[in-house]
Amino acid sequence: MTIITAVTTHDVRFPTSLSADGSDAMNKDGDYSAAYVVIHTDDPTLSGFGFTFTIGRGNDLCTEAARQRGIPLVGLDVDVAVADLGAVYRRLNSDSQLRWLGPEKGVEHLALAAVMNAMWDLAARRANKPLWKLLTDMTPTELVDATDLKYLSDVLTRDEAIALLEELAPTRATRVAELSESGYPCYTTSAGWLGYSDEKLRRLLQEAVDQGYRHVKLKVGANVDDDYRRLGIAREVIGWDANLMIDANQVWDVPEAIEWVARLAEFEPLWIEEPTSPDDVLGHAAIRKAVAPIGVATGEHGMNRVLFKQMFQAEAIDFCQLDSARLGSVNEILAVYLMAKKFGVPVCPHAGGVGLCELVQHLSIFDYVAVSGSLDGRVTEYVDHLHEHFTAPCIVENGAYLLPTAAGYSAEMYQSTVDEYSFPSGSYWASVAPEVQAQPVIEHYLA
Amino acid sequence: MTIITAVTTHDVRFPTSLSADGSDAMNKDGDYSAAYVVIHTDDPTLSGFGFTFTIGRGNDLCTEAARQRGIPLVGLDVDVAVADLGAVYRRLNSDSQLRWLGPEKGVEHLALAAVMNAMWDLAARRANKPLWKLLTDMTPTELVDATDLKYLSDVLTRDEAIALLEELAPTRATRVAELSESGYPCYTTSAGWLGYSDEKLRRLLQEAVDQGYRHVKLKVGANVDDDYRRLGIAREVIGWDANLMIDANQVWDVPEAIEWVARLAEFEPLWIEEPTSPDDVLGHAAIRKAVAPIGVATGEHGMNRVLFKQMFQAEAIDFCQLDSARLGSVNEILAVYLMAKKFGVPVCPHAGGVGLCELVQHLSIFDYVAVSGSLDGRVTEYVDHLHEHFTAPCIVENGAYLLPTAAGYSAEMYQSTVDEYSFPSGSYWASVAPEVQAQPVIEHYLA
């Protein structure tokens, strides 16, 4: 018998604001961060690793919330827990006092994601399989038992969910073999951050084309004339056969979104991403009607499955960009994939940040193998930074994620990274000048 | 010149779980708590007091989030700040790193509410007026300058908002005089907690009738046969002319809500409150269609103005129950009142908890005087507990809130209360046995 002995948490922050990586119209100075969770067992060779992703300040709150969320795990028999991760999820998520702080949104839900991501990592390691393999080896009933269907029965019952998964169960192996050859297609946002000069943009776009990407994404929304010029540069470099996506990071009201996108329509973007508040289901539906045939994409701030249910019901989006560290881990993500299948909406997960690429590759593979069975309209985000901190980083070749082979959810960071970037006492943060060290706490306010 | 010198925060928790006060189908063991904020100035006679409300665990996170949110206030000139509370709100709310943790929801938004509630309290004290009077003395333009209209322009423009307020501006004094006579009508939830016995329920309902209440509310949703019996008792005691409301605290899926309410329809409830997930706009719209003429009410967990915008657009609710400590204080609440006016939906604020009654009385008075000009379908919640901890508690007589006369937002607690109930080091928590002291942290998990 192997027992969970402790859950430790770490506030890990990378000083990405110094290089404008990740800059967009809403988020100008993010320090990419992880509220990092380690589930320890009495077997020194077995731990689970997980995290949620934030952009700096407040990562301490997520870390402390994750510590509190993890308390009930201590003392559990690992094999009992991993045999019913639906029960573990419900136990953590049903704490009514913590539920009041959401429910199922904000810091508390991010913390739940961090802890349950570590539990799924632990389960996959215990089975000695990469997470995608753990999932694709589960029966339809086992998968649905792990899925949070609460509040969804008006669009998806348990029986429907099982039936959806049974459709593709007999042919899963074929699609695993196919992805082993080709990988899962991805696109790059690395070229398009708003803080980059035109020259850097042009150079990075050319690099993306040379690396085999068929999709690139640019940030927009700060200044429409700048956007017009940058999209022109993009089409010059990538041509008109490749796909160009644009991302406004929630800066517009609904009428403004419609107007702004019309101005950029001649560049034929595949989608406009996050045109307005991520909570505005009816707003996205209105924008979608107005900007067609340009698609509408959103989801990286989609707080929970109830929001996605409504996005599907209202026909508000063409692309579902769920986030692997914002939804309540695999338990809630499965529900979104199943609803997306029912409503015929492709899921193109949000990634980038720190470690999100490592997570979402498993989800996209699982989706193709077991849920959607399709690559049509599907392409998963990839951003080329901070992978060096992970013990089993994702590998992208010719614009596709290769199938991960290491056991787990690819979420483990090097201990040296944790030691260096823990805030504020890690060796990096302790070494910088006090003004810089204080930056994630108050610099923003002094600007 | 008076300067803000410090913002202090306090994790105040009351052991209400010991008496089952506040028990409902979702929340069985709440310890009513406040993340309490004091804004200090260099004038020892002038401070601002505010809070957000939680039910126990996680109040520490809200308190720390409020501390961080308050940092930019230190050093501000009080008169400059209170002259443009819209600017203060935008400054705090636009922190992009903290925004990532919501946006505008969960722990971070509760913390914003706590800090801005204290700023509005400070502004009213500076003007030596109760908050309702501060607001009703502001011009339409001043009010709209303080209102957060971001993401709302598809339903309410700035010009429309000003025009709405100008309608009633000339006649405000008449309605102030009227409320000075009659007070603002309220209803009581004190009788109806789910943890109470039938005998206690019957006794408390009779007391409510004797005290002049024309509306009472019962918790439902744990067991339909129990609900049927309890509603029968309620009608026996209050008769059929008084109004009976029921509250399910989010326990149902949409189809279940429709079925359960049908079973209770013979008792002719005025509304069913929180029938399902507070995020489910389209679900509430479906329930509303199915259960009419019973009304649908929700809002105490309504996370922000974008959610309420959609509730109005989708015709999902008959009663809007905004929460004074969950929305971003008066700045965001004004936006919801203005939209409610435009869509013709009465606002009946959520209260109870600790201190919420103290806050909402000001909002309801302001609404009648300056926004809606109507009492039709409007009744504000009142729960009779924990008022003794406030220096200027609300006063209810004959089922109506009397107009508050003390300067401020009625949010100040006695220092002795803060000293006694601060968690875990206050004199109450320090005095109880260690097992009980630990209860708010882990007792739930041990059950």
The profile of the biggest β sheet of chain A is: 9 strands, mixed
- Provide the CATH superfamily of the largest domain in chain A: Enolase-like C-terminal domain
- Which fold name fills CATH's third level, the topology of the largest domain in chain A? TIM Barrel
CATH class call of the largest domain in chain A:
Alpha Beta
User: Structural class from helices and strands of chain A?
Assistant: alpha/beta
- Count every helix of chain A, treating DSSP H or I runs of 4 or more residues as helices: 19
* Quaternary status: homodimer
Number of domains of chain A: 2
The average pLDDT score of chain A comes to: 94
Shape of chain A: globular
Helix content of chain A: 40-55%
Distance between the termini of chain A: 55 Å
Name the beta content range of chain A: 5-15%
Gyration radius from CA atoms of chain A, angstroms: 21 Å
- Low-pLDDT ranges of chain A: 439-447
